[in-house]
Structures are given as structure tokens and as C-alpha cells.
Design brief:
Blueprint (H helix, E strand, L loop, with lengths): L9 H39 L10 H17 L13 H6 L5 H11 L8 E2 L1 H15 L2 H27 L7 H23 L16 H12 L3 H11 L7 H6 L14 H33 L15
Helix pairs in contact: 2-4, 2-5, 2-7, 4-5, 6-7
């Protein structure tokens, strides 16, 4: 005799139905994720590897925006701590009362730089990293840095800073001004990512034309302590070169001069003559000073004690 199979029970039918629903839900979730993933992937791929790219260079404008933000932080440092608007940065430094939020922002803006204080830390970092990415011409690195910076700045400005300063963002005019300039930087940075970095990025933009404005600005740039040396070392670190650091500094950008043209006598005797007189005064001023003191006062400064040491 052959046995007949038992018809499936309700529990078996229910389990089979649940398995089918889970498979459908899994397929649907995978298709939804892929529909979101592919456009995002294509977007970032088009940024990093564009089919056509109108290469441009807006690094100078980005640096200018960062410099303005740095100045805003320095002169409006009281807005980044529990201090009044009448507070002075020099007095706060002398009293060891530097706002922590101020120190963070300065060091991020310039080092992630060379500021003694934690909001001047926010400024230094972005400027140094921007210079490194610019010299290496790394669009992908710039994109990652841009995304991190956008989220980090907004989290800092709207959540952490109001907690530290006990002042809401819409009541902090200095922070609003800083944020506005930073948004301009974000726009320029996004445009740089979209356009791509130029192939040749060396050279100081102040030395690319002949006029008195560029001359004075370049001389002012060179007068800032350690700024020229910092730029030269950074360029050497992130540029492929066979030169040693000392040789690189020797060929660092100088203000351009037309070849074969003699210097004017006004420049030679005006600048060179004054330097010669200054050096002569520095060398001979001590003797002249002692001579005048002796002739005017008529008093000889006799030695009172002498010590002699002989060693082998």
C-alpha cells in the first residue's frame, strides 16, 4: 500500500508566506539602496574624474577668505569666550585668560598654525591642509576635506560654540560674520573641486605682474615673521623636486625684474646708501658714544677689579 502525503498545515503555510515576504523585502531594500547609491557614486565620480574639465585656480581667493576669517577671530576673540566686548587680547594673554573656543578656532583656521591661542587653532589647520592639497593637486583629498569641514564647522558653530560661550548663534554677531566668510570659502572650494586643480601650481601670485601695488604687497608679505619661510618649507615638502631644502629656499620667489636693465641711481643710492650708513653707524656707534661721554663729562671710567683665569 502507498501512503498519501499529509496536506501542509496552517503553520507551514504561514512560515512559507513569511519567507516569501522577507525575500521580497530584502530585494526591495537592496534595490532602494542601489537606486540611492548609484547616483551618489556617479556624482562623486564625475567630480573626481570629470569627462571635461575647465581647469581653474581660485586658491588665492580661498586663502584670502581664510585670512579674513583669521583677522575676525583675532580682533573679535571676545565673542568666542565668556568675555565682554571691551576685553583686550593682549591683556587676556598677559593674565592667562584665553577663551578655549577662541584657541580652538584659531588653530584649526591656521594649523590642523602658528597661533599661541585654541579658536586661532581652527584657522591654521585649514590653511595648511589647503596648501598641501593645492600643491599635490589632489581633488579627491580636497573633496573629502570639504565634506569633513562642512559638517565639522556647522556642528561647532551651532552646537558646541553656543554651549561654550553661553550665547546663541543669532546673538553672536562676530560668529555670524565669521560663518558668512566661511560660507564664501565653501563656495570657492566647491568651485575648485568641480573645475579641478591646474597642472602647474607653483609661484607667488604677487610676483606675476609689474606694478607698485604688487611690490608693496609682496614686501609686506615678506615682512610677516616666519611666513615666507613657512610657505617655502611647505612648498618643498609637498612638491616633487630634486632640490634640497636650502637650495629650494635660495630659488624661492623674488619680485620679478626685467633682464638686462640696470637699477636706477635713486634706488641704488637711496636704498643702498642708507643701508651702508646704517651699518657704519651700528659698527662705530659704541666707540663714538664712549668718546662723547668722556669728552663731555671729563671723567675716566677706571677699572676697579680684574680677574684672570688660565686653563689647559
Amino acid at each position: 500500500m502507498c501512503s498519501r502525503s499529509q496536506p501542509p498545515g496552517r503553520l507551514d503555510l504561514l512560515l512559507e508566506k513569511l519567507r516569501e515576504l522577507s525575500i521580497r523585502a530584502k530585494k526591495h531594500s537592496i534595490s532602494r539602496c542601489m537606486s540611492l547609491y548609484h547616483p551618489v557614486l556617479q556624482f562623486f565620480r564625475a567630480l573626481v574624474q570629470p569627462e571635461y574639465s575647465a581647469v581653474t585656480d581660485v586658491y588665492v581667493l580661498m586663502f584670502l577668505a581664510d585670512t579674513i576669517d583669521f583677522i575676525i577671530i583675532v580682533f573679535g576673540f571676545w565673542a568666542f569666550g565668556k568675555h565682554s566686548a571691551a576685553a583686550d587680547i593682549t591683556s587676556s594673554l598677559s593674565e592667562d585668560q584665553v577663551p578655549e573656543a577662541f584657541l580652538v578656532m584659531v588653530l584649526i583656521q591656521f594649523d590642523v598654525s602658528l597661533s599661541p591661542c585654541r579658536s586661532l587653532r581652527l584657522s591654521a589647520g585649514t590653511m595648511v591642509i589647503d596648501r598641501a592639497l593645492y600643491l599635490r593637486k589632489t581633488v579627491l583629498g580636497k573633496l573629502v576635506f570639504q565634506v569633513i569641514l562642512v559638517f565639522g564647522i556647522h556642528f561647532w558653530m551651532f552646537f558646541i560654540l553656543p554651549t561654550v560661550t553661553e550665547r546663541r548663534f543669532n546673538q553672536n554677531l562676530v560668529a555670524q560674520l565669521w560663518y558668512f566668510v566661511k560660507c564664501v570659502y565653501f563656495g570657492l572650494s566647491a568651485y575648485q573641486i568641480r573645475s579641478g586643480y591646474p597642472t602647474r601650481v607653483l609661484g607667488n601670485f604677487l610676483t606675476k605682474s609689474y606694478n607698485y601695488l604688487n611690490l608693496f604687497l609682496f614686501q609686506g608679505f615678506r615682512l610677516v615673521p616666519f611666513l615666507t619661510e613657512l610657505r617655502a618649507v611647505m612648498d618643498w615638502v609637498w612638491t616633487d623636486t630634486t632640490l634640497s631644502l636650502s637650495s629650494w629656499i635660495c630659488v624661492e620667489d623674488r619680485y620679478p625684474q626685467p633682464r638686462g636693465r640696470k637699477k636706477k641711481r635713486v634706488v641704488k643710492y637711496g636704498m643702498g646708501g642708507l643701508i651702508v650708513l646704517l651699518l657704519i653707524c651700528i659698527v662705530w656707534f659704541p666707540l663714538l658714544f664712549m668718546s662723547l661721554i668722556k669728552s663731555v663729562a671729563g671723567v675716566v671710567n677706571k677699572p676697579l677689579d680684574v680677574s684672570l683665569t688660565i686653563t689647559l
